[in-house]
Amino acid sequence: MQQDSKQIIKGLPRRILLMLLDCGLIVFCYWLAVMLRFDSGEAYQRAEILRAMAPMLYYVLPIYMIVFWFGGLYEIMWEYAGMRDLARLTCLSGLATGLIMLFDLFYRSRPISGSVLIFGAVFNTAAIAGVRFLWRLIKTVRDTRANKPENQTPLLIVGAGNAGAWAVNLCKNKNQSFGNPICIVDDDLTKKGLRVQGVPVRGTISDIPELVRKYHIMEIVIAITTLKGDRLSEIINLCNSTHCRVRMLSDPQAVDDNGNPVAAGFRELNTADFLSRDEIQLNNAQISEYLHDKVVLVTGGGGSIGSELCRQIMRYQPRRLLIFDIYENCAYELETELRNKYGADAPVITLVGSIRDMERLNEVFETYHPSVVFHAAAHKHVPLMEISPAEAVKNNVFGTKNLLTAAAEHGVERFVQLSTDKAVNPTNVMGCTKRLCEMLIQSFDSGTDMKCMAVRFGNVLGSHGSVIPLFEEQIKRGGPVTITHPEIVRYFMTITEAAQLVLQAGGLAKGGSIYVLDMGEPVKIMDLANRLIRFYGYEPGVNMQVKITGLRPGEKLYEELLMDTEQDKMRKTAHNKIFIAPPMKIDLADFYNGLQALQVAAHHNDDAVVECLQHMVPSYHPNRRVRADHTVVAVTGNTGLFSKEEVAKQILERQEFQPAAEKGE
Questions:
Q1: How far apart are CA 455 and CA 419, in angstroms?
Q2: Which of 62, 232, 403, 457 has CB 3.0 to 4.6 Å from 517, enough for a Cys bridge?
Q3: Rounded to 10 degrees, what is the CA torsion of 308, 314, 319, 323?
């Protein structure tokens, strides 16, 4: 308390000086109001009016000072004042004028007209505010000159809206290290020639290369926070072509993973900016309907797509989220992140285990009784699975089958399998195993009460093994940047976008479906590499070499989201970015006989595994040598180990294979 009193006393001289200054301004403004109001009268008349008005100062000034003091006018730090403080000053001046008029009316002693009082109030407000803001301007200019670095980076700002004004303000008032804004561009032609806080709007976005040369711009800041999709990609490409450093204005409303506001400033471009797509519109009510207050299990929950699924699921307040993964480090980090964001008592449980361990799966399902399962666990790296096909089969095929069996037996309502475009006309082991997973999904949906579905999409930006982090590492090392083939193209999607669409697909009612996500236009990897090289300030083939290494085992030039037989039968869903591939015709007896043969072949990591995969998936054409001394062990449906009736029966009897039969059989 004593310390507070000392602080108040210490601030009194400043407040008293401001009060004396305001008294002088008020007297001057009333004199000016009289001069303007009676400008057509003789000088002696105005002098008489001023003499008659002099006694008013004995109560006019005290009323103003009392209103200003108790209204908090002298508590404002005018160095940081804004429109709200100006509004307060206006209201206080109006209140003081009203009290003066009431005082005159009560004592009937008004020597001059009310118009003078009103003019005086307007002039008072303008004068007091003007003096305050003039001082602020002088102080800002003085501080700017005192802190001005010798060499400020000349900036060009893209966008003359609110975000552009905020970017200019950051450079001028907050941190001179952000650079010196030289000009602004905006496609709104009505803004050309105008100024934003003194910075001129000199053209449109298409004028950027010319303005960069003319004004020797070294950095470009894109200050349009709502810009998405193809237009953002076009602007980034245009800016990168100037060889300037390109950054984005941080979203003023952005928060980090802990819910804290992101520091104001400019950020570097990221992979999502390079391949920006239009923002996804989700049916949150539909997603919430099957996730809210439910126990949700995510296999591979510590991985790239699995962890983002967990983050998105938590937004819908599940009763419990089970993160299931064999690799405990990433899973633990994700659990820590979610608890930091949602609180120490967040309903998140991390379970270590493998989908290849049937006993562990049964233990998890019996203990926690999940209602919804998202299956993201898989071996995904194409070249590695070409070397170890047996491991791909054990994990991707039979691990998925274990999970489907445990889920069906423990009353899971909904099972969502994450698939890949590599499952279409596969040329590698990984893609072929994913094709078998899609077949398992359809067979289990038709033979059990569980609603099963697969979601097929392409490459995910930023995931483990993604091409962009690899390119960035090679560029930072000085090159060369390695590309397997100059014509290779891929579909790309951000991790967040993929996770959101997977959740949306999971909410669609059609079980047994293979949902195909709209991946947009395919991207040529060579173009993507060149963009990244230029982004880091190099020129492809000049000071950063691009080396062609040849296609890797199992790799193909073009990925496909649909098979040839699916193209004409694709159906739309309620969501414009999700489609349904036609169901596959599966001979269940032949399929499960093939699975038995595949399991036997997977005991050894040799070409017999590949031969079995070819038998089960006729569209699989491996671009690898298959040794001729192995024979296909699979048998046909006519001479197979199980009839269709036996296959259907085994779903519920938990024999070595638990295949699903068609409904009604």
A1: 5
A2: 457
A3: 20
Q: Helix-strand-coil percent breakdown of the chain, rounded to 5? A: 50, 15, 35
d(CA 431, CA 619): 11
Tokens of 83: 């429109």
d(CA 73, CA 67): 9
| Pairwise CA distance, residues 350 & 345, whole Å | 13
Distance CA 462, CA 494 (A): 7
What sign for the dihedral angle of Cα 262, 263, 268, 274? positive
d(CA 590, CA 586): 8
| Bridge partners (DSSP) listed for residue 517 | 578
- Residue bearing tokens 């008004």: 110
| DSSP annotation string for 286-315 | HHHHHHTT-EEEEETTTSHHHHHHHHHHHT
Whether the Cβ atoms of residue 573 and residue 622 lie closer than 8 Å to each other? no
**What's the pLDDT at 178?**
77
Query: Are 160 and 196 spatial neighbours (Cβ–Cβ below 8 Å)?
Result: yes
Beta bridge partners of 454: 417, 514
> Where residue 371 falls among pLDDT bands split at 50, 70, 90?
very high
With 0-12 / 13-18 / 19 or more C-beta atoms within 10 angstroms meaning exposed / middle / buried, residue 469 is middle
CB-side neighbour CA atoms (13 Å) of 481: 31
Burial 141-176 (b: 16+ CB within 10 A, else e): eeeeeeeeeeebbbbbbbbbbebbbbbbebbbeeeb
Residue whose structure tokens are 């489907």: 404
Q: What angle do CA 214, 216, 222 make, to 5 degrees?
A: 95
Residue 432 sits at the vertex; the CA angle it makes with 430 and 435, to the nearest 5 degrees, is 115
| Burial status of residue 50 (CB atoms within 10 A of its CB: 0-12, 13-18, 19 or more) | middle
User: What percentage of residues in the chain have a pLDDT greater than 70?
Assistant: 75
Q: For residue 415, which amino acid is it? A: F
What are the angstrom distances between the C-alpha of 294 and each of 320, 371, 425, 508, 601? 7, 6, 37, 17, 39
Who has greater pLDDT, 78 or 118? 118
Catalytic residue set: 422
**E-state strands within 326-402:** 348-352, 372-375
Which residues are registered as beta bridge partners of 420? Answer: 457
The reported pLDDT for the residue numbered 665 is 31
Structure tokens at 186: 């905006």
* Cα distances (Å, whole numbers) of residue 540 to 310, 474, 526, 534: 39, 13, 10, 7
Taking each helix axis as running N to C, give the angle between helix 114-147 and helix 2-37, from 0 to 180 degrees, rounded to the nearest 10: 120
489 three-state secondary structure: strand
Q: Is the pTM of this model over 0.90?
A: no
Q: How many CA atoms lie within 13 A of 549 on its CB side?
A: 10
Count of other CB atoms within 10 angstroms of residue 370: 27
Rg from Cα positions in the chain: 36
CB 555 within 8 A of CB 381: no
